[in-house]
Amino acid sequence: MTTDHASAPRPASRRTVLTALAAAAAAGSPLLAQLATAAPAYADETEYPSNTALYRERAGQEGTSFSRRFRRHEQFDTSMTTVAAFRRTAILALHGGGIEIGTSELCLGIAGYSPGDADGAPVLPTVHDYWMFEGLLSSGNRVLHVTSKNCDDHVALATAASHLNVLSLHGCQFDQLKLPTGTYPPTGDRRMAVVGGLNKTFRTELVKELNAAGFPAIDSLAPAWATLLSEFNGDHASNPANRTMLSMGAQLELTTELRTSLFDDAGSRGARASTWNGEFVKFRDACRRAIATVESGQPLL
Predict the structure, then answer these.
(1) Host H or E run for residue 139
(2) Is the predicted pLDDT of residue 25 greater than 70, yes or no?
(3) How wide is the angle at C-alpha 289 spanned by C-alphas 252 and 217, nearest 5°?
(4) Helices vs. strands in the chain: H and E counts, helices first
(5) Strand 165-172 vs strand 217-219: parallel, antiparallel, or unpaired?
(6) Which of 36, 106, 252, 262 sits at a 20 to 30 Å CA gap from 275?
(7) In 3D, which of 21, 23, 24, 45 has the Cα closest to residue 35?
(8) How does pLDDT run across 268-282, given as a tens digit for each residue?
């Protein structure tokens, strides 16, 4: 199973090394001067500064190192006297595949499709538009991570901008959250959904539905958690979760234990596609109920 992007100590990046070499070169070493300019800056970065930088550095590798998948459902309004329904919510997985495992499958499931058959017909009566970026490396997919606020994929941003709501799915580790051990002991239930984003109504519904379905969930922007979970609250205006028509949306940071519990075998892409279980269905449906409640308060004008 591929580890999450934050699971290992951050190594010195190529940029750091080249900076040191350049400094040495400035001191008069011709060999170091050659080394300092011998390679592109981003190839070994732990994190790319943007999707554009990643796509340029890995040109020609789509389908082998990474993939992008999306679906925008065709709709028409040909009536001059009535208002047709439109897709109000999009599901995003910015770090899918092997980067933050399980988020691709959840993206498809919540959107109304089978986690193992994105090309197939919907399996649920209501569908949502979706976009995902996936790491396809056999290992070390964390190098493909782009911080949410730095996402500049034009399809991802266009998808967010054309919807009232976005639900963005992410992965984290339980120990990263540093929750109070009296309430959340490290040896206890390490499944946790940290709910963020600027849409308070959406956050409230997600917390309610996930807890009711048996998944521990907390609102990261509630007063009790706002300071502790500030790094996981998805409140940045440039986060695609908030780049909606309403300038607000929702984000889920899901611990590794929660995500792996949704599959009988979470160890590989193929296994996850075929072994999603009853817990997956419960989590999927809880998110869909939250979406339906939020949408019901957004009448057509």
Answers:
(1) none
(2) no
(3) 35
(4) 10, 7
(5) unpaired
(6) 252
(7) 21
(8) 999 999 999 999 999
